[in-house]
Each structure stands twice: as C-alpha cells, then as structure tokens.
Recover the amino acids of this structure.
C-alpha cells in the first residue's frame, strides 16, 4: 500500500502528461470534490488508459496548506480503468465555459507516485476473461478466418468478425474467435429506449458520437443456432449472451430468440444462455424462461424511478417493468444480475442505497455487476436534471454494507457461466 496521496497529473494538449508535485490528487463524487483515503488507491491496472480532458483544469489539494486549488498547468487528466475494476471517485476538475462534451468513456481520478500511476478503485471480479494479456492477435485472426470459412453465409458471424472484433476490438467478440467463454449474440437493430449515453446510436443534434455502429439487420433463428451450438459444445465455461453494445433491445426480437433457444437446446444441453436487456418486456422474459433462458442481466443507472426515467427515456415501458422482469426470471429459478452503472456521488447516496436494498429484497436479486459509467459527468447530471445528490457514503462503504446485509448476493463484472450459477462460484478462470 502507498504511504501518501499521489500527485496530480496534467496534460500539455500534445499528448504528453506531467505530474505537479505541489498538488495531491483528490476525487470527485457528484458535484463535490473530496480527499481520497490512502488505502483506496491501487496501481492503474494493465489495460488502463489515460485521457486528457480538454477545456478542464484539474483540482488538487495543496501539499503545503491542504487547501483545494486549481492546477494552472495544462488540462486535467483522467483514467479509463479496465473491466473487472470499479472506480470509487471521478476525476476532479473545473470545466471552462467553452469545454467540449467528453466522449462516452469512464473518467476515474488518477495520480502519480514513485514512478507509477494510481487510481481509486477496487477489483470487483476475479474472472480474467477480458484481461489484455489473455488476448493473442494471431489466434484471434486465425479464428476469424476459420469461422468465416465455416459459416460463409452467416451475417452474424460476419458482423462479429468485421465490426465487433476487427473494427472495435470488442473483448467478447475477440474471446468468441479464440473459442472460449462468453459468445456475444447481437440480435436487435431496434430499441425502445433513448438512453442519454447510448453507445450505438446518438441523435445528430447531440454533441457526442456513439462509440460504434449498430447492427443493421434482423438475424434469423437459424443464423443464431448455426454458430452458437458449436460454441456451447466446445468452449470452456461456455455462455452465449443476447443483447450487446452494438445493438438495440433484444427483447424486441423475443420471438426469434425464443425459437433460437428452443432449437439450441435440441442440439446441446451445455453451457448457459443469457440475455442482457433493459428488462422492458416481462411477458417476453416469461416466454424466454419457458424456452430455456438461464440468466438475465438488466441494465440500470439507478434503483430509483426518478433517476432511471430521465436517463433511459423509455418508449412504452416503465421502471416497474424492469423490476417485474427480474422477478419473472427468479420465479423460473433463473439467475438475475443488474448491470449497475456506478456514478460516485449518485450511486452511493443514502437515498440510492435504500432504494437498492429494496430492489434486492423485492426481486431476490442474485448479483450486482458494478460497471463504470461511461459518460461525461457534467453532461450526465445536467441531462437528468440533478443539481443536488444528497448525503453520500462512498462507493466502497456501500459495497461493504450490502455484503454484510446480503451475504448471498454476488458482486462482479461479468455474466457468470452455468458452472458458477450452479454453485461453484469461485471458479479459477486462469486455468
């Protein structure tokens, strides 16, 4: 563990980053800035990146006086922390009037000490499925070639190869072409929500662009079955997941997905079938459970309706539907997770904590996937109209309190394979 707070970083606007040893690095939660406890800093994990934040001046803690003040040198710097880690504080900065809106990444506080970068974060997941070191480009490209030859007419395999794997370097698609673990199954070009931070479709009038292009066709059940059955049959800890970042809402394609699941299960009993969804159609979830769906992951930025609705901006569904979908899945004995977008200063507010406790109890929730929220903090809070976040307890303390009250509730970052769902939760994926 480090003995003191790390120093603040700034960028010269040319891609060079420097430390300012007259200032320690604090962290932001909500609209406010706080000192960070020394034990909350960890070394920036492998696969992390640093971002310059144009039009923003870093806020630091004066080494001599302990007062907060602006770093006048260059632009503020933030870190992207890789999957399996959850950030505890955002980067602290003051935004200048003409600053551009930041693109859809997470902006964790970051500092420098003794030749290393540090971030306030916790490793929330032991699974190594998206570790940078685990990817071998040679193996991936061989896989791409083999799979395109094996499924020459399958539009989904082509989409996963050309777009997801080779253009966007999607970790799930890369794993699929390495023949292991979770296989992504994009299935819906349309959506029934208009999320502020949508990563696959942003309206022209917004100041940001989506990070990838959305799937532009409706796959058939046959196309889905053709490449998922071999994966379930041969991959270690196999899992297929409908609902990916490059598509709309999979429940809008529930009939196709139902037909695919029924057909898959005629060919193989192996592995787990999962859907990542906004949970908008409990009736569709019921039909999929009857067909053989094993798990569901419902995305949400909050356990409170008043925070959920202005972010998701749903068409023809309500927050209560997502709660109902989780209950339906549990009533069939399936595994439920929430894909919980962590925003320090909102997620750990006392009000949110109480609402989350209620959600866990009401739905008998199995797991929380503590995901870093990829969004410009100022833009997000402005868009959902939050001027005051209320009393906060800190993300780490909130996690500890939930662990204490709900010892069976699992924490993580990824959808678990069937082996974990069935009870062997502490699987060692390294082997």
């Amino acid at each position: 563990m480090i003995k003191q707070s790390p120093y603040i970083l700034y960028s010269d606007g040319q891609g060079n980053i420097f430390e300012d040893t007259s200032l320690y690095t604090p962290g932001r939660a909500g609209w406010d800035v706080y000192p960070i406890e020394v034990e909350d800093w960890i070394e920036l994990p492998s696969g992390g990146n640093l971002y310059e934040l144009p039009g923003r001046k870093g806020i630091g803690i004066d080494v001599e006086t302990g007062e907060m003040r602006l770093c006048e040198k260059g632009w503020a710097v933030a870190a992207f922390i890789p999957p399996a880690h959850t950030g505890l504080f955002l980067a602290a900065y003051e935004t200048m009037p003409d600053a551009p809106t930041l693109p859809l990444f997470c902006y964790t506080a970051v500092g420098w000490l003794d030749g290393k970068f540090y971030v306030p974060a916790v490793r929330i997941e032991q699974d190594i499925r998206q570790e940078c070191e685990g990817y071998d480009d040679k193996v991936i490209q061989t896989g791409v070639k083999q799979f395109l030859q094996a499924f020459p007419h399958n539009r989904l395999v082509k989409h996963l190869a050309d777009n997801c794997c080779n253009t966007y370097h999607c970790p799930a698609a890369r794993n699929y072409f390495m023949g292991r673990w979770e296989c992504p199954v994009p299935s819906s070009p349309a959506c029934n929500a208009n999320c502020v931070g949508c990563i696959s479709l942003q309206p022209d009038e917004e100041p940001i662009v989506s990070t990838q292009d959305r799937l532009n066709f409706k796959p058939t059940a046959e196309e889905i079955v053709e490449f998922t059955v071999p994966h379930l049959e041969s991959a270690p800890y196999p899992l297929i997941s409908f609902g990916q970042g490059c598509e709309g809402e999979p429940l809008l394609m529930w009939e196709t997905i139902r037909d695919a699941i029924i057909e898959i299960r005629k060919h193989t009993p192996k592995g787990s079938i999962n859907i990542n969804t906004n949970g908008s159609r409990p009736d569709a979830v019921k039909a999929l459970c009857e067909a053989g769906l094993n798990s569901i992951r419902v995305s949400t930025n909050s356990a409170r309706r008043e925070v959920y609705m202005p972010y998701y901006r749903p068409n023809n569904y309500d927050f209560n539907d997502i709660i109902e979908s989780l209950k339906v899945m549990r009533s069939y004995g399936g595994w439920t997770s929430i894909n919980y977008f962590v925003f320090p200063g909102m997620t750990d507010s006392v009000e949110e904590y109480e609402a989350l406790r209620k959600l866990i109890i009401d739905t008998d929730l199995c797991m929380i996937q503590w995901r870093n929220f990829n969004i410009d903090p100022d833009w997000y809070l402005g868009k959902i109209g939050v001027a005051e976040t209320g009393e906060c307890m800190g993300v780490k303390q909130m996690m500890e309190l939930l662990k204490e009250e709900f010892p069976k509730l699992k924490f993580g970052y990824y959808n678990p394979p069937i082996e974990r769902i069935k009870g062997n939760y502490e699987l060692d994926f390294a082997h």
